[in-house]
Write a structure and sequence with these properties.
2 domains; mainly alpha; two-stranded antiparallel ribbon; HNH domain-containing protein
Length: 213
Amino acid sequence: MQILCCAYCHTQGTYVVNEYYKRNHKPHKKGELKKPKAFFELDHYYPKSKYPFLCVSFYNLIPICSSCNKAKKDITIDFDFYIESKSLIQEFKFTLSKGSVAKYIATKNKNNITVEISHPNKKILKNFDERFSLSLKYNEYKDIVEELIYKEIKFNQIYLDSISNILNNTSLNKTIIKRIIYGNYSEKDEFLKRPLAKFNQDISEDIKSLKLK
C-alpha cells in the first residue's frame, strides 16, 4: 500500500527521501546514497508504554505527521490500519454546509465557507475529530474550496476540452490531465498518494452537485 500522507489527518505528507553525497567524503564517494531520510513519525498503534514487546513490530507502526503523533499520545485508536485503513478513510466524507457556496459567491468572503465531515460510524468520527481536530484543520483549507468553486463556474466544457487537446499533444493520459486541471489526484483509488486528495475529490463532487453553471 503506497501511503504518502498522514494516516490519521491526511493533511500532511509522509515521505522517505533519498539523499546523496555531494562531494567525496571518505569512505564515501560523490553520488553515493546516504541513509534515506524519513519526513514523518511512526505511531505505535498499541502504545509502547503499555506493550513494550510490540514497539518494533512492523504491524504496530503507522506513518503519521508529528501533529497527530503528539495528539494521539498513548490512546489506542479503534481501527486496524493494515487491514481496514483504506476502507475507513474512504468512508469519511467532506462536504460544504448548506448555503456555503451561495453565500461565498454573493460576498466573495471565504469565511462564509464551512467544511463539514461525516462518517457512517459516529463513534469513529467523534474519536478522530476530538483527537486530531479534523474539523478545525480542514476548515483552514477554505482557499482550496475557493479555487474549486471558481474552476466549477469558469471551466466550461469548451475550455476543458481545449486544455485537454493541448495537453493531449504532450502524450499525457487523461488521468494526469485531470490532475493538472484540478490540482490533485482525481481517481478514487489514488487518494492516499497526496495530502488532501480525498478532500479535493469530495468537495469537487459536492460543488458539481449544485450545478452552478
